[in-house]
Amino acid sequence: MSQNNNFFELIQQQMLESSHKTFLELHDSRSISFSDANRLSAQLANKLNELGLQPGDRVTAQIDKSAQAVLLYLACIRAGIIFHPLNTAYTLKELEHFLEDAQPKLFVCGSKRADDATELTRKHKIQLVETLEANGTGTLCEDIADYGERFATVVCDENDTALLIYTSGTTGKPKGAMITHKNISSNAASLSQVWGWQKDDVLLHVLPIFHVHGLCVALHIPLL
């Protein structure tokens, strides 16, 4: 049997070993444990499968920074689905380029943006549109408790794409950088070693998670 190089396979070890430790401490004093993250991301991964998403499909997410956004990212990773985050400040005109180029199967956004982008999503034949708000409401999560709390991590090659992050477009239109499972695992491991990261360290996360630094560097290291 081939080795599973899915990045989630690596971080799930931490989730199981530190199940009752805090993974995220939120601004309103609520917290999410590693066990919670494992369970909730499994439920989201099961829902993504129920919606018809398969490994290699793309999910474009233009959503506010929140615990739910992080859980959606983890769900995509463990399901072998390519996660494509977008700046929430992008206008509809800017959004059109990304939808046309990335060709996602699912577009996740706030409810207001879903209404505004109806014509765009139809034009680019995006099959699925779901909403997700920072407070956990939205169509993507409204029936999440009905989904199983276990999910078998999809087997991925180390060169399979995990993330689609677009460049800033300083020399033309933004271009999609395909970031592999190996890219994110080696980056996290190297930085963890250089920073001298310890299991009980705490990281104050102030960066946007649509940015590669906020998503990969700041989020992945505490997960190892």
Count of alpha and pi helical runs: 8
- Got a strand count? 8
| Sheet with the most strands, sense and barrel status | 4 strands, parallel
Report the order of strands and helices. HEEHEHEHEHHEEEHH
Mean pLDDT: 93
Radius of gyration: 17 Å
The secondary-structure class comes to alpha/beta
**What is the name of the CATH class?**
Alpha Beta
Report the CATH architecture. Answer: 3-Layer(aba) Sandwich
User: Roughly what percent helix?
Assistant: 40-55%
- Unreliable spans are none
Strand content: 15-25%
Count structural domains: 1
Q: List the strand order in the largest sheet.
A: 4-3-5-6
Notes on the protein architecture:
The chain has 224 residues and is α/β, with parallel strands linked by helices. The chain has 8 helices and 8 strands; from the N terminus they run αββαβαβαβααβββαα. The strands form 3 sheets. The protein has a 4-stranded parallel β-sheet with strand order 4-3-5-6. The protein is globular, with a radius of gyration of 17 Å. The chain starts with 6 loop residues before the first helix and ends with a helix.
